[in-house]
Design brief:
The protein has about 280 residues and is an alpha+beta fold. The chain has a single domain, classed as Creatine Amidinohydrolase (Alpha-Beta Complex), CATH 3.90.230.10. A 3-stranded antiparallel sheet has the order 3-7-8, covered by helices on one side. It has a 3-stranded antiparallel sheet with strand order 4-6-9, with helices on one face. The chain is globular, with a radius of gyration of 17 Å. It binds 2-amino-4-trifluoromethylsulfanyl-butyric acid (MF3) and cobalt (II) ion (2 copies). One cobalt (II) ion binds next to loops. Monomer.
Length: about 280
């Protein structure tokens, strides 16, 4: 049985398994946090190129958050000490920024989560350093399509959570890509990671009913090969077991009375590379 909880003011919210349903204040807060997150990725598009280190990207992301009066929600999160995640080529997610430079042909996901006035805006996009292989470009295109098809599935009246994963998996399958199962989207708002868990490969018609006021992310990770992940000894970096390329896009969205609202849409229309 899914329990929903109405969030009306600025009461403390707990990770108690309930799905939070937000009011106008929540939408306002998430619009600001989501917009900032998207603007940070917009700003990074000109910066990502061969020779730039992921640590430099992290510094830029942190500076932009602090300048806007936000803090990186990732910093200090379960011992993570950076302001974003930078996941290159066969890294699925949670790549740790370092002094490693991007090389020509790399594809990299940058995932940012500013915490602004108590609300979390969580989004990621793929970026190209130089010119990637056609195989990499096709994976990135299809992964973006998977995200948008998942969002469309959530926008249908009467939709259930499983409809999102069903739409994503059906699309990925046509290209024989693997949908990562070890990591999921998540409810968010005042909390960074909350119920429900949004799985990206699921059966249509299953899971909780989507109700207006729900805020959650959709963040499919799609592999050019098998779906399986393993975590490196640093405790964070998730890579494909078969070393195949992996791509990801993430939006923070709300269910509304007549569909969905995307909080993290690019104000500059920089939806997917090449930008
Ligand atoms: N932003 C990631 C997500 O989409 C979470 C990163 S947690 C970190 O949920 F600690 F790895 F940064
Ligand atoms: Co997320
Ligand atoms: Co994220």
């Amino acid at each position: 049985m899914t329990e929903y909880q109405l969030i009306e003011g600025d009461e403390t919210v707990y990770r108690d398994g309930t799905i939070k349903l937000h009011g106008p204040d929540g939408y306002e807060g998430m619009r600001k946090a989501g917009r900032l997150a998207a603007e940070i990725l917009d700003e990074l598009t000109g910066f990502v190129q061969p020779g730039v280190t992921t640590g430099e990207i992290d510094d830029k992301a942190r500076t932009m958050m602090l300048d806007a009066g936000a803090v990186p929600a990732t910093m200090g999160y379960r011992g993570y000490t950076h302001s974003c995640c930078t996941s290159i080529n066969h890294v699925i997610c949670h790549g740790i920024p370092s002094d490693k430079a991007l090389k020509d042909g790399d594809i990299v996901n940058i995932d940012v989560t500013p915490l602004l006035d108590g609300w979390h805006g969580d989004t990621s996009r793929m970026f190209f350093a130089g010119e990637p292989s056609l195989k990499a470009q096709r994976l990135v295109d299809v992964t973006y399509e998977c995200l948008m098809l998942g969002i469309e599935a959530a926008a249908k009246p009467g939709a259930r959570l499983g409809d999102i994963g069903a739409a994503i998996e059906a699309h990925a399958r046509q290209f024989r890509y693997g949908v990562v199962q070890e990591f999921c989207g998540h409810g968010l708002g005042r909390l960074f990671h909350d119920a429900p868990e949004v799985i990206h490969a699921a059966r249509a018609g299953t899971g909780p009913e989507l109700k207006p006021g729900m805020f959650f992310t959709i963040e499919p990770m799609i592999n050019a090969g098998r779906p399986h992940a393993k975590i490196l000894r640093d405790g964070w970096t998730a890579v494909t077991r078969d070393k195949s390329l992996s791509a990801q896009f993430e939006h923070s969205i709300a269910i509304t009375d007549d569909g969905v609202e995307i909080f993290t849409e690019s104000p500059k229309g920089l939806h997917k590379p090449p930008y």
